[in-house]
Specification:
about 400 residues, mainly alpha, 15 helices, about 0% strand
């Protein structure tokens, strides 16, 4: 029994990866870019974004469902990952446009003139033309990809170290994480934040130097999102399956007892908090080029609350439950808020789902909490027990 492989001890992981592969292949074949044209490019992008949301939901389930820390700030890490890759996309796309426009000049522009023109194009909307310090590495795709992981990870490391060493826990920690998210969002709303304030970063769907149509690019991102979700799920399953997973579940169930047994509870919490922040950053870096734009409103505190709702509906403490919850809410939200759901006339009032979707989502969360605390994932557990 002790020599069983990781997959043998976690058959649900293999099932999930197989389902993910079949799903990705089916969408590719049915897409406009590579296949039969049964699925529109916009819906392929929706599915790709949904896979990214599933990945950040897995991160949320790790920190909340397995470690017992209700973080209401993980969407901030998601947004930071989007901002890091967005900086390179805007810089490089603008550089190509400026270089092409200046090529017709009789006197070749100096490198500084090119940089000044790029700065004017990017920051003219906020009344500036100089590159802020945080854009120092925006010219390098390699460095910005490193920052996709490093910036959310460093923020989580510093915040977590300060919070956990002070023994902040429970609802107080949740409030602190939400305060962190609010502070970050308010800072980014300012024009002098260096990230174009309320305007955010736009045009991210246009990959610099890529001449392929959006039909093809959407499939590329779908593949990348599916690969990231598959690897992230595999990593999460590996983390929670061994001794480390037993310790963090022990912290969730009885922190005092785990500390009494000699384990450094704060170290385990900090490791999980930082790891999940990095995963969230990667998810955000893949999400926003498909969305095409990122602004501070995307990482407002309400977004992190929604993330917790997704995990609760899917079933926390079950990785596949987090994926199910995020995918279900994302796709249903698209249906209701995209104008596809018909309004319901009641004579004296008309129910417009665009306005009432959030109410429906909140009601679903309350009902799940009261009557199905294990979420949708708990149904699979019930089916599995009956099958035995």
């Amino acid at each position: 029994m002790k020599n069983r492989s990781f997959i043998a001890r976690n058959p649900s992981t293999l099932i999930f990866l197989a389902c993910l592969g079949i799903f990705t292949l089916a969408v590719t074949i049915a897409s406009e870019g590579f296949g039969l044209g049964l699925i529109s490019t916009s819906f392929v992008k929706t599915l790709g974004k949904t896979l990214c949301l599933c990945l950040v939901a897995v991160a949320m389930d790790l920190i909340w469902g397995y470690c017992g820390i209700l973080s209401l700030g993980h969407f901030a890490f998601f947004g930071l990952g989007g901002y890091m890759i967005g900086m390179w996309l805007m810089y490089e796309r603008t550089r190509l446009i400026v270089t092409e426009s200046m090529a017709a000049q009789q006197i070749p522009p100096t490198p500084q003139e090119v940089i000044d023109s790029i700065g004017t194009q990017i920051f003219g909307v906020v009344g500036s033309s100089e590159f802020p310090l945080i854009w120092s590495f925006a010219h390098s795709l390699t460095l910005q990809l490193i920052l996709v992981v490093a910036v959310p990870g460093l923020l989580a490391l510093v915040f977590g170290w300060l919070a956990f060493r002070s023994r902040v826990a429970g609802v107080y920690l949740s409030i602190l994480t939400q305060a962190m998210t609010l502070a970050l969002a308010l800072y980014l709303f300012q024009n002098d934040s260096g990230l174009r304030g309320n305007n955010g970063l736009s045009g991210l769907q246009n990959l610099p130097g890529v001449t392929a149509s959006q039909d093809v690019v959407s499939i590329w991102f779908l593949w990348a999102s599916a690969l990231a979700l598959g690897l992230g799920y595999l990593l999460a399953a590996w983390v929670v399956s061994g001794k480390f997973g037993s310790v963090i579940r022990g912290i969730r169930d009885n922190e005092a007892r785990v500390r009494f047994l000699g384990y450094s509870v704060e170290t385990y919490k900090l490791a999980m908090f930082t790891l999940t922040a990095c995963i969230a950053g990667i998810a955000g870096a893949l999400y926003y080029p498909q969305a095409g734009i990122i602004n501070p409103a995307e990482i407002a505190p309400i977004a992190s609350i929604y993330l917790a709702v997704w995990v609760a509906i899917g079933g926390r403490g079950r990785l596949y439950g987090a994926v199910i919850g995020a995918a279900l809410v994302s796709l249903v939200s698209t249906f209701f808020t995209g104008g596809q759901a018909p309004d319901i006339p009641l004579g004296f009032y008309t129910i417009a789902w665009v306005d009432w979707w959030t109410v429906l989502l909140g009601l679903t969360f309350v009902l799940v909490t009261l009557f199905a605390p294990k979420g949708i994932g708990g149904l699979f557990d019930l089916i599995g027990r009956k099958a035995k």
